[in-house]
TrEMBL record:
GO terms for cellular component: cytoplasm. This is YigZ family protein. GO terms for molecular function: anion binding; guanyl ribonucleotide binding; ribonucleoside triphosphate phosphatase activity. Residues 146-201 form the UPF0029 domain. It comes from Spartinivicinus marinus. It holds the Pfam family DUF1949. One of its GO terms (biological process) is regulation of translational initiation.
Length: 205
């Protein structure tokens, strides 16, 4: 069996944008759901196309669960080092949201904010965006392969709904080999039920 995370976590339910103005500079925080680094970088490029005349496009993302992320990155995009990307990431990690990208677009208003002012501005608009962000809980799932005799297939199929399992693939040779997916929290109960119903004849890998 292959497992993802051991607990549920919040992910963005939709994309949103929140705007703040600080000393005539406009800061627009855009939040999107991403699942990996490739998706994040592609989304950043699309945002740059949407806001081509902005002075900066600073960003941070967390791919995967907030605890044990598969990829984390941030970028200051020309702002003084440590004043934009890292503050954005700090707020994201504090909110414990996974699969999330935050890009803060800045239109310079002619007044320099200083390092402290930039950190507060980027953190503040990110905080406002994440407080507004609708989220849903992602339930980690496992995949497993069940090998059984043809006679057990109807029983196996009848067990799946009880444990929120779904069939991903099914191969028929001299036996049935079924790939299933189900919530991680139901793994042990489903395994016990299959073993019990098949009297140990069904093999789960």
């Amino acid at each position: 069996m292959s497992e993802q995370s051991e607990s549920t976590y919040a992910i963005p339910a939709e994309s949103i944008a929140v705007e703040h103005e600080v000393k005539r500079s406009r800061f627009i925080a855009l939040v999107e759901r991403i699942q990996d680094r490739q998706q994040a970088l592609a989304a950043i490029e699309q945002i740059k196309i949407r806001y081509p005349d902005a002075r900066h496009h600073c960003w941070a993302y967390v791919a995967g669960p907030p605890e044990g992320a598969t990829s984390i990155a941030f970028n200051d995009d020309g702002e003084p080092q440590g004043t934009a990307g890292k503050p954005i990431l700090n707020v994201v990690q504090h909110h414990k949201v996974g699969e999330v990208l935050v890009v803060v677009v800045r239109y310079f208003g002619g007044v320099k904010l200083g390092a402290g002012g930039l950190v507060r501005a980027y953190s503040g608009v990110t905080q406002a965006a994440l407080e507004k962000l609708p989220t849903i809980l992602k339930v980690p799932c496992i995949t497993a392969t069940v090998s059984c005799q043809y006679s057990f297939e109807p029983i196996l199929k009848s067990l799946l709904p009880e444990y929120q399992g779904t069939i991903i693939d099914c191969q028929y040779t001299d036996h049935v080999e079924m790939a299933i997916q189900l919530p991680l929290e139901n793994k042990q109960l489903m395994t016990a039920a299959i073993t019990n119903k098949s009297k140990g004849q069904a093999k789960i890998t």
